Request: fold
Amino acid sequence: MFDVQAAFPDIEPIPQDDGPHPICAIQYPAHFNMVMGYFRACLATEELSERTLRLTAEVIDTNPANYTAWHCRRKCLAALRKGLAEEMEFTTEAGGDNPKNYQIWYHRRAILDEHFGKKEDGEEELLYVDKVLEEDAKNYHAWSHRQYIIEKFELWDGEVAYVEKKIDSDIRNNSAWNQRWFAVHLKASKDGGGKYSARGEVDYALEIARKDFHNESPFRYLLGILQECWCGESKVNEGEEDVKKLTGEVREKLAEMKDQGSSHVHTALVDIATKEGDKEEAKRLCEELRDKLDVIRAKYWEKQIQKMGGGK
Amino acid sequence: MGSQKVKFTVATSTTEQQEDTEKEIAPFYIDLTKLTGPNLAHLREVGLLAEDGFEVRLLREKHVKYLTGGLEKLGSGYVSLDASRPWIAYWCLHGLDLLEAAPVEMMPRIVDTLGRFQNATGGFGGGPAQISHGAPTYASCLALLLIAPSYPKAYDAIDRRSIYKWFLSMKRPNGGFMMHDDGETDVRASYTVIAIAKLLNLLTPELMEGVAEYILQCQTYEGGFGGEPGNECHGGYAYCAVAALQIMGKLGMCDLEGLKGWISRRQMGFEGGFAGRANKLVDGCYSFWQGGAMAIVDAYEGDMTEGGFGTGVTEYVAEVGEEGADVSATTEAKGPISGELSFDQAALQRYTLLCGQHVEGGLRDKPSKARDFYHSCYSLSGLSVSQHGSSKDGVPLVYGDARTNVLKPTHECFNIRVDRVEKARERFKDDVCNHDDLIS
Reply:
């Protein structure tokens, strides 16, 4: 336990300058006021010392969202050239099982940026992220941090396999689908000669889509890949003829799923029919979506139909 | 109104949570006209139903009381928001302003307190002696600008020049902005800078350089925007991206069709409210983040001026132009096609009024969650957007009791009232807005 008052005998704490009648006035507990009083004093003197570093830990313990304390902490660390494995441990402690606060995640990044460069450091950090994702498979910050690590430490090789495991355990984990997109594209740009196999991605998406026709994630992934093909993206490994063939095949396979009553199948078919200039079919599909399959979006579909020159 | 629950053939933790949420919501969507005896008496007593009908009501007075309380003393539990006090001020004040109840007598105190959060080096911190941060800067400026028409000293409290310099100092070579010195870079930062710069007439070409290009990298294959390039698209970040692009006049640079499709798919078939991401749950705060983003896109495309859905509103005016008309029934009769926005405005209002309101005042994510100031602000903001659409001078589309439910129109890009935005524009239009002069 760090005794704040004993550590700063020479420092006069600075009370919060809130004025006589502040709004949104939080009734601070005495301990909070004491810790913050010393912290403000350290900020005022710009003392970047061991004791200030320990004080920031106390401030963060009272309020982990105090970004000024994290900021000051990094300044102290830089001035003291501290052992940084320890700092990651501190941050893990401060974050708990399912951290959703910007400060904690940014701190990890800043520390990694400043001091780590070895692949093993990145791999170790991925283990931390794994743990968080086991707790909450859709933690937004964790996935974002994962992308940062994978890119920085060049760890994309195992990522598609990792994501497939995540999708296997919940085919509706849309964060995992997004991560697949990220991993496939990053790998292509780094060591795939800039290209990836659109057919491989299409096959995977269709395989998962068939398990549950009502799951939006694989359908949008599928369309994302096709759209990249249609735009003639240089990232795609398929030539123009292959793209036509692939699109036709996907359209056929989706058409086979049409009687499943899935709005996602229909929506995907609208996109493809529109692309292929099959206006009548696109309109018919939109009408079914508007009237039957997807009535909450009736207005959206009605507008699409009107754009195609129809509508009520 | 749509009422399609989730369908699935493979049960996963996602479908389980979704089913639980639908079960939680279902009791709120019973046919109110079939209520009798103590149930009906209870709903009338708490004020959720009119004494003389079955239209659901906005608990205006209770929300005013709850939000006014947020501006006064807060319990010790709020220390976790000690770096977000300007947010609390903004959430409460904007909610009150939509309810036409911003507390005039408190305005000198508001200016005094927020003034203490402003740093000489530019920008606002979350409290006194906290370093400047994009979010408190955004919230403080909005709070000041929304009270300023009633209390002009609030305009003078904002140091434009130092804010401009601070904004510039947060800019990164990739066109993004940091939230604070040595802080994270994401589209929240881009939006807070661009929105405040626009309101204060500081939106110079120098400040905007590369900003749209950074934001555009955040649009994903699904059509929405994530917080950083590569990240999953998400309602909060998508709003920031869309609003910032629109303010800069660059919304047309993104994939608009993809964007509209993604936002519209986020409205939940049974609940009527919005979720933040695909395969996630409904949450009242997305009423604004998603609903507001759609209103921006619709305004951009000028849908209402081209006829089509504008006509729905006109018909509605003719039918319920008189006070006390049965608005709810009218909305129902027209079905989800009414209103000019590209989502189901009536269904969203129904979710907000029936599932979002705490009977003691304040609004919430969903019925099983506690009320808070954040969800109150954004639920009310979403309600305002879905009432007024992207036209601000037409007659609103009101679900439930039109005598109690109409809010003031909020500006979909800034989320303060439209009249507050106009006043700010007037106030700052002649101030210096030239890079070289601003940094001199």
Q: What stands out?
A: Chain B touches chain A through 88 residues (CB under 8 Å). The CA atoms of residues 388 and 394 of chain B lie 7 Å apart. Residues 303-336 of chain B have pLDDT under 50 and may be disordered.
